[in-house]
Amino acid sequence: MKACAIIQSRMGSSRLPGKVLLPLADKPVLEHVIRRVQQAKTIQDVILATTEKDEDTPLVELAIRCGAKVYRGSENDVLDRYYQAAQKFKAKTVVRITADCPVIDPKLIDQIVTQYFQVKVDYCSNTLVETFPNGEDIEVFSSQALEKAWKEARLSSEREHVTPYLKKNKEQFKVISFEGKSNLSDKRWTLDEDKDYRFLQILFDHLYVKNPYFGMDEILKFLKDHPEAEQINAQIIRDEGYLKSLKKDQEVSVRNKRIKA
Asked: Is 259 inside any structural domain?
């Protein structure tokens, strides 16, 4: 069985505007994300979920060139954006990926999607208990669970970040955590600030030529030999955006709308 990956992306970023189009090994960050997800054997379709703003049109054009499908929707209600994308392309199982993860590992995607199908749950991810590097976050959930969250989630943090409602309401959903053999949660391989970009440039400069889809093992080996590279962005707080959303949390009025696929 296969799943549908939905990659959320937009040009707007308070800390690093336009980050998803920054070049790594002469290709935009977003292209690396799309092509890596396409390498996963458990992924049937890759969808870019972006906004209707004109500034995000270059992302749409890039996604189409890479062979991905596209849905354009709400800028701030990302939960609605995901739901509408899943409805449009009839996705029964959704894999959530963010576009600021240019070293997302296709093999890890396959492992988590496989566990999701084997255990038969509503939600499976490696984010419930953080043991993987920041930048390897993968969430898998059913379209039914997504629809329930879309209908019932009211807090702004639940609409802006897609899956908090699923993770907080475990009595409503069958939820399982995918955890690594060792705790690598202190490692930061995502792109949110300029320091992250400098770190990722080093990785791609050293690893991309040998293998464009270099995985976690290759990164860990490189960092073992070059520990100084990790210090570039080591002090940045993990999930800072979500933590800020929680601080300003408030109920929002949600007008659920259905679309014809």
From this structure: no
Q: Output the six-digit token pair for 92.
A: 């029964």
Residues in the chain predicted with pLDDT less than 50, given as ranges, are 242, 259-261
Residue 57 tokens read as: 């049109």
CA-nearest of 80, 139, 85 to 109 is 139
User: Structure tokens of 258?
Assistant: 């259905």
Per-residue pLDDT, 224: 97
The two structure tokens encoding residue 5: 């990956």
Domain assignment of residue 40, yes or no: yes
257 part of a folded domain: no
The total domain count for the chain is 1
> Which amino acid does the sequence have at 51?
T
Tell me the pLDDT tens digit for each residue of 86-127: 999 999 999 999 999 999 999 999 999 999 999 999 999 999
Residue 170 belongs to a domain with what CATH number?
Answer: 3.90.550.10
206's enclosing H/E stretch is helix 194-207
Distance between start and end Cα atoms, the chain:
22
Spatial CA neighbour of 93 closest among 82, 101, 103, 102? 82
CA atoms within 13 A on the CB side of 44: 11
Nearest CA-CA partner of 69 in 102, 43, 103: 43
pLDDT at residue number 250: 62
Beta strands in the chain (DSSP E): 3-8, 23-24, 27-28, 43-51, 69-73, 93-98, 123-125, 139-142, 175-177
* pTM, entire model: 0.91
Under a CB-based contact definition with an 8 Å cutoff, are residues 188 and 223 in contact?
no
pLDDT of res. 14? 75
